[in-house]
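Problem 3 from the worked examples.
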Amino acid sequence: PIDYMKRILTDVDFKYGIGLNSGYINEDQFDSVRTTLGTSLKFRLFQTESANGKAYLEDEFYLPLAAIPTEDEEGRIGIKLLGDSTDATFIDDITDDKVAELPIWARNAERLINTVIYNYDYNPLTKEFTSQFKYEDLTLKSEHGRTLELVIDSKGIRSYAENAAATHNWFSATAAFLTDAAQRHIARFGNKAPVISAKATMSSHLLEIADDVTLTFDNIVSLETGIRTLSNRPAEVSSMTIDFQQGSVGFEFLVYP
């Protein structure tokens, strides 16, 4: 699927190619994720209708892979796998001296899940999915008191049968992949992930969407201790709003559960 994504982004001859210059692709990120997912993972897509390139990549690749798109300081498009804070690489510690206004707890993340359902083995003739995979975190389900589902329709994921024809042996990695991807979705959004908003000056702005950081603020209450000190809390840049007139950047940090 990673090779497929790169082809869609850069190919000018491919039927569904967007035709970006290869310089706009973060090759290192894509190659790293390809290695993590394993070179045996395969998707097979039958596209019978026109599609918006951005939506197609999000719906058929980023979401099924349990990943999010990234953009670095050079404007290059990349990919980052979901996970918990142990999977993160932190690039900075955001402290009081790096923000222009008092940071605040803004809200909880919009998504909270304990069950992931994949519909796959898409039949392009009937336009139906013929297989389903369901993963439940029973501990979280008990804590939440109800089922909170994330349903993913994937036209690219295919089943593997031990006695299938040789052409179907591509998909031997599917079962393990589905479990891993479902677990990574739940690791990121299974528990409440609060959002902290803060504002920084443009001159000190060196962050991009999906960057992992730690947050250390003296004047914000820790949700765990109730004490007005937050120290080294892992978080991810989830939103940025630039105000050119004020010369500032508004950030939202999605805190890791």
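Problem 4, a separate protein:
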Amino acid sequence: GGSLEKALGAARRAYEADPESESYEGNLFGLLELIPSREEEVQALRQVCGQVCGQISGQVSGTPGRPRLVLRYAEALIRAGKEEEALAVMRDTAARDAAARSMVVATAQRRLNRRAQALETLGAAIAGAKDGVRSGLQFEFALTLEELGRDREATVRYEQLFDRLVRAGSQVVLADRVLNRTVERLAGLYRRAGNRARLQTLLTRTRRVVDEQNPLPDQIAVDSLSAEGRFAEALTLARAAARRHRQDRSWLIPEA
């Protein structure tokens, strides 16, 4: 609407006046997330990027760098189904954050069904990544293996990542979104393989390290019971979880 356009205009002008300001950048990115249309998001970012992102030629690499904005633009292009354009932006732009750049490139490659290339991209990034960002790259590597149907290899990768996250300590685990996604994917693989023992071990270990407000173990347990056709038990567990997670509306269960 008009109010969003005005707010975006003001945020864009503030950001362009001081592109190094994290506050201006955060405000701008937050408003961009409110744009309902993927294509409109791309157009808005094109305007904001100006000469940095507005061209898809080799000239981009010679322009002043706004690396986070360029990455955000490429991500918007991928969401809009313009993966080739996103890859062109990444080729022509030198990003300071090599891990983030590799993640964007690999996502575009996966969307284009070039998963072997995505594995190469992620593998090279993992080799040079620092500990703080390596886990996200490792998760994407395992997910790409899973998408290729290489479930055994994916399982090993997920298990290794899960072990590292757990060993990193409870404070890291609690704040790490990668842990939730890793547990979800591992649980799915164990269910498909009919490996109930490993699934139960995964749930037990996860409950030990996550905050009691984290609904993930309950979600996996309910899904597993449902997948086995044990619907009455699944419903009983879901009702108990709903009482524990009253603030989470996803646990609301309509009563007959």
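Solution to problem 4. The chain is about 75% helix and 0% strand. Residues 158 and 186 are 6 Å apart (CA to CA).
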